[in-house]
Automatic annotation (TrEMBL):
It is found in: Cell membrane. Gene3D superfamilies: Alkaline Phosphatase, subunit A (3.40.720.10). It comes from Komagataeibacter diospyri. InterPro entries: Alkaline_phosphatase_core_sf (IPR017850), PEA_transf_C (IPR058130), PEA_transferase (IPR040423), Sulfatase_N (IPR000917). This is Sulfatase N-terminal domain-containing protein. The keyword Transmembrane applies. Pfam families: Sulfatase. Keywords: Cell membrane, Membrane, Transferase, Transmembrane, Transmembrane helix. GO terms for molecular function: phosphotransferase activity, phosphate group as acceptor.
Length: 492
């Protein structure tokens, strides 16, 4: 490691300037991410890599200008210094290169010698991830992070676990099957929505949820209090609502029938309509699930003619069209962008007009309130009777984000709103009964509500077991008790 500077300053002026500036740029980027995320985990890097172009532009817009100016000045300084100090020195290059090459050869040999060829190919991302993670542990900081990204992002490698193929195994918790109990199911999965900013959850600083409030007053919906997600990141959370995956047991996403497959098995026509994406390594866990549906459209999939993009309002025409479908039993998953950063590009002039003195986060909640209302209004006119769940994949630390190791509870607190086909009753009460022993309703129980609607019976003992603990899959991919999240550490 300490030989790197020697090498970098001995490659002649141009060579030194390029090497040093690129290294410095990576260093600044790594420092900024570490600062912003408190702790760089493998998941942080996966998330960065999986960010699509629009999200990246949106997120870069949240970095203050002063940080950009400081970065440009630092890079300029390094470039000038390298130009002045950089000399071509063959001996120094040799001295620096020999140990580097030797270490490289030694590590490659070690990797080759220990590679489990009988079970794993290099193309198997599980092993590749394991090795990348291992290398990162041994070379922390910018070198480890860049190595990790280089190994994981190799384009020709496909994660075979996320290839869509029919499963044959039904989870053992399911003990019976009847005709579907709800003919039309609409599940709206929100994004980065913090319940404590909802008017219907008692927030009175701004009138963020006028539509939901009106429906609540008319008893068309119920608003569940005290709800939290089981993971503060989309990729971990969404699969826990639509499969048997839990924080402790994650392989069930790949080994057993998911909720979409169970719906189809029981005669439902299934639709997944999403302004979210689903192709990159970050989005793949929910992209994978979406593709089990009879009809799938997303901002990055099957949207050539229906106009679906990252804006939530773009899904309305196709939703109206698909809700017109004559199939007797139907399930719709609607996966929206909600309040993902950057907030102001989720907000329309109508939201600003309605809440001129609110911050952009509150305005984005106001926008989602209107999106939910629009979906419900289409459902009412096209489907007639339907049961709807509206919730969010996770909460949000307002103006900061989510998926933070020491981010605390705001990234977990979510809304849970139910409209019952036959007026407020059945599923609101059932959800109340599904609270954990500590009083919280959590996202992993969503699947039990859906299974009941779809006509399945679940072993009551299994559900009791699920209620007896309150575990979450946290930012570092480790399981914690919800009442004992990793506490704030002052890293900087
Ligand atoms: Zn999310």
């Amino acid at each position: 490691m300490s030989l790197l500077p020697l090498l970098f300053f001995s490659c002649g002026r141009i060579g030194s300037m390029c090497l040093n500036t690129v290294f410095m740029a990576l260093l600044i980027l790594d420092f900024y991410i570490a600062h912003d995320c408190q702790l760089i985990t493998d998941g942080t890097l996966d998330a960065i890599m999986g960010t699509n172009r629009h999200e990246a532009a949106s997120m870069l817009g949240t970095v203050p200008w002063s940080a950009y100016i400081a970065a440009v000045l630092a890079l300029g300084l390094v470039a000038v210094l390298s130009w002045r100090l950089g000399r071509w020195n063959r001996r120094a290059v040799m001295i620096a290169m020999v140990p580097l090459v030797l270490t490289g050869v030694y590590n490659s040999w070690k990797l080759y010698a220990n590679w489990p060829f009988h079970t794993a190919k290099w193309t198997d991302i599980v092993y590749r991830r394991y090795i990348a993670s291992d290398l990162r542990d041994h070379a922390p900081g910018v070198v480890g992070d860049v190595t990790y990204l280089a190994i994981i992002s190799t384009k020709w490698v496909k994660d075979r676990r996320f290839v869509v193929r029919a499963h044959t195994v039904t989870d053992r918790q399911v003990i019976g099957r009847h005709a579907g109990r709800v003919r039309n199911i609409v599940f709206i999965m929100g994004e980065s929505s913090l319940a404590s900013r909802y008017g219907v959850y008692g927030y009175d600083n701004q009138n963020t949820t006028p539509n939901l409030q009106e429906m609540k007053d008319r008893k068309q919906i119920c608003v569940l209090a005290k709800v939290h997600t089981n993971a503060p990141m989309t990729r971990y959370s969404v699969p826990m609502s639509f499969s048997f995956q839990t924080p402790e047991i994650r392989e069930t996403l790949f080994n057993e029938k998911n909720i979409i497959e169970m719906a189809r098995d029981n005669g439902y026509k299934t639709f997944w309509i999403a302004s979210q994406d689903g192709k990159g390594p970050y989005a793949r866990p929910f992209g994978y699930l979406s593709e089990y549906s009879d009809y799938t459209t997303r901002q990055d999939y099957n949207n050539e003619t229906n106009g679906v993009n990252w804006k939530d309002e773009s899904i309305m025409p196709v939703l109206a069209d698909k809700m017109h479908d004559p199939a007797p039993y139907k399930m719709y998953v609607v996966h929206i962008m909600g309040s993902h950063r950057k907030y102001d590009d989720k907000v329309t002039p109508r939201d600003v007009q309605a809440l001129p003195n609110a911050d952009t986060y509150d305005q984005s909640i106001h926008h989602t309130d209107s999106i939910v209302q629009q979906i419900m209004s289409i459902a009412t006119s096209e489907l007639g009777d339907y049961t709807m769940i509206y919730t969010s994949d996770h909460g949000e630390i307002v103006n900061v984000g989510h998926g933070y190791q020491y981010g605390g509870y705001d990234q977990y607190i979510i809304p849970m709103i139910i409209h019952d086909a036959n007026g407020v009753g059945t599923y609101c009460n059932m959800a109340e009964q599904m609270r954990n022993h500590d009083g919280y309703y959590t996202s992993i129980m969503n699947k039990y509500l859906l299974l009941d609607m779809l006509g399945y019976d679940v072993d009551p003992a299994a559900m009791d077991a699920a209620r007896s603990r309150d575990h979450v899959l946290h930012a570092d991919s480790k399981v914690y008790n919800y009442n004992n999240l990793p506490t704030e550490k002052n890293l900087w």
